[in-house]
């Protein structure tokens, strides 16, 4: 027994904190954490984005209440898709102009419970600890060339892993976006109607956006406008006006409903707007307080099949550069 | 289902629990994620504080530590997967306001053999009379400079490495080493005549 052992043992039999004390401390912490750091400054946004106010009103008009088909899950409380989408439109962020040579950086958490993968063998430095039935979750950082002419990057890492980032280059993909499959396999260029991540040329009015989404849907989404809208929100740069137009169009789709009490892949509470197709509900998720776009979910029954939660979106000058 | 959702699925395999760095980074956007940091380390931080100043003060200081950590979370280096040194550092800083309380308790223990910190819980544990070694130890802890006491307790009791202590207290590792060396010399002198093979003398 050396001197340090004596120190270690002194008061070593002190009982630990009881559960009630820990609960009390935890509650105080959670209360603090739930206070929004910055309240949405709506008036300021109207000033900053001319024409947005009128467009937002359009969302309210366009997205009428929807009565349900019976294959929707019961809602936690009444909340209409039109309210959610109107609020989401209000939250559409003013963003800087993106230059063609820049990159759109998006950091997200993605979870996929729809498939399972063998863990040994062909892993590229992943530390594999398979857990049967547990959703596969990764942290994903992607740098997408704004004009689609430059090499972008993709870094992924199993959530919580310390194995380091699995990094890959995204070769210039002038005709589309990249379809990410699994580590170690090539990343395919998927054909989409336009190149690059910069969609600031997308229409800013609902009629134009509807046409735009229909064209994209016909080429890549089996004609599903809601899916095309989800794609557009996920990995691209949209002007706030285009986002507003997009929410207007989403609100017009048949079968769109809202659901409260949704928790996204990052553990954030929110509300979703979604449509059901063959028992599978595709959802856009918005923050429960600010109505900022958070990400998306695909839900079958009560099971989340796939989800993606955006943590950060920024414009940067170089691939690999963090904002 | 549309093909579009396939794009969501960049899809490697393992799902170990996220590291503290990632949780804290995530909590920048989603504050409530920080609760997981408390769930992981709350008990350990409370224990560290309770062993220094007793349960009732530790309750308040644990709460303060995590509230402060939450407010400072943007400064946390997300590449650090273990938040313990950081949290112990914050807790140690908060303890400095209660230095005199801590020292008085060690002094009382050394004098009377009854530990004021343990006393409220005496009925919960099978208390034995304080050993001569613990009374001498308390006397040494009472006399140590606060900076040496911090290092000694973090290393011996919380089993932080020198590098982690340096991170926790925001001082160079060399300083940690010299403070630990100095504290241990005082300790060894105080404990010198105790037979190391039979430390429990009654």
From TrEMBL, chain A:
The chain crosses the membrane at residues 43-66. InterPro entries: CU044_5270-like. The keyword Membrane applies. Keywords: Membrane, Transmembrane, Transmembrane helix. It comes from Phytohabitans flavus. The keyword Transmembrane helix applies. It comes from the Bacteria. This is Uncharacterized protein.
From TrEMBL, chain B:
Transmembrane segments: none annotated. GO terms for cellular component: DNA-directed RNA polymerase complex. One of its GO terms (molecular function) is DNA binding. GO terms for biological process: DNA-templated transcription initiation. Keywords: DNA-binding, DNA-directed RNA polymerase, Sigma factor, Transcription, Transcription regulation. Residues 38-104, 140-188 form the RNA polymerase sigma-70 region domain. It holds the Pfam family Sigma70_r2. CDD domains: Sigma70_r4. Belongs to the sigma-70 factor family. ECF subfamily. This is DNA-directed RNA polymerase sigma-70 factor. The gene is rpoE_35.
């Amino acid at each position: 027994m050396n001197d340090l052992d004596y120190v270690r043992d002194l008061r070593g039999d002190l009982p630990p904190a009881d559960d009630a004390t820990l609960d009390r401390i935890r509650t105080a912490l959670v209360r603090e954490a739930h206070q929004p750091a910055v309240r949405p400054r709506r008036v300021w946004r109207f000033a900053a984005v001319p024409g947005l106010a009128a467009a937002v009103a359009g969302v309210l008009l366009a997205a009428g209440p929807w009565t349900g088909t019976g294959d929707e899950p019961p809602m936690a409380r009444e909340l209409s898709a039109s309210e959610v989408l109107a609020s989401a439109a209000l939250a559409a962020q003013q963003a800087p102009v993106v230059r063609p040579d820049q990159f759109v950086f998006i950091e997200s958490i993605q979870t996929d419970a729809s498939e399972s993968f063998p863990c040994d063998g062909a892993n590229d430095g992943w530390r594999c600890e398979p857990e049967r039935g547990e959703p596969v979750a990764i942290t994903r950082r992607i740098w997408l060339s704004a004009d689609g002419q430059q090499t972008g990057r993709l870094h992924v890492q199993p959530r919580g892993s310390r194995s380091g980032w699995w990094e890959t280059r995204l070769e210039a993909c002038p005709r589309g976006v990249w379809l990410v499959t699994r580590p170690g396999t090539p990343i395919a260029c998927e054909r989409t109607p336009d190149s690059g991540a910069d969609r600031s040329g997308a229409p800013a009015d609902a009629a134009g956006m509807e046409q735009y989404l229909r064209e994209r849907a016909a080429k890549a989404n089996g004609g599903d406008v809601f899916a095309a809208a989800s794609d557009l929100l996920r990995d691209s740069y949209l002007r706030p006006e285009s986002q507003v137009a997009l929410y207007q169009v989403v609100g017009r789709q048949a079968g769109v409903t809202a659901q409260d009490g949704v928790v996204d892949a990052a553990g954030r509470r929110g509300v979703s707007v979604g449509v059901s197709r063959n028992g599978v509900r595709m959802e856009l998720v918005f923050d429960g307080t600010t109505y900022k776009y958070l990400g998306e979910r695909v839900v079958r029954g009560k099971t989340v099949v796939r989800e993606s939660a955006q943590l950060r979106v920024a414009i940067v000058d170089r691939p690999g550069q963090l904002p | 289902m549309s093909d579009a959702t396939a794009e969501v699925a960049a899809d490697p395999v393992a799902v170990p629990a996220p590291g503290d760095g990632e949780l804290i980074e995530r909590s920048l956007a989603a504050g409530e994620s920080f609760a997981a940091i408390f769930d992981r380390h709350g008990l350990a931080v409370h224990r560290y504080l309770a062993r220094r100043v007793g349960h009732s003060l530790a309750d308040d200081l644990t709460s303060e530590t995590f509230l402060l950590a939450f407010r400072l979370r943007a400064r946390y280096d997300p590449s650090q997967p273990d938040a313990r040194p950081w949290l112990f550092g914050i807790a140690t800083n908060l303890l400095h306001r209660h230095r005199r309380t801590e020292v008085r308790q060690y002094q009382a223990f050394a004098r009377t053999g009854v530990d004021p910190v343990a006393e409220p819980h005496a009925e919960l544990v099978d208390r034995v009379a304080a050993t001569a070694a613990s009374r001498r130890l308390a006397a040494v802890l009472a006399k140590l400079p606060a900076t040496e006491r911090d290092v000694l307790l973090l290393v011996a009791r919380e089993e932080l490495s020198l590098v982690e202590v340096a991170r926790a207290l925001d001082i160079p590792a060399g300083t940690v080493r010299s403070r630990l060396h100095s504290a241990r010399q005082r300790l060894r002198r105080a404990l010198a005549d105790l037979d190391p093979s039979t430390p429990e003398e009654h």
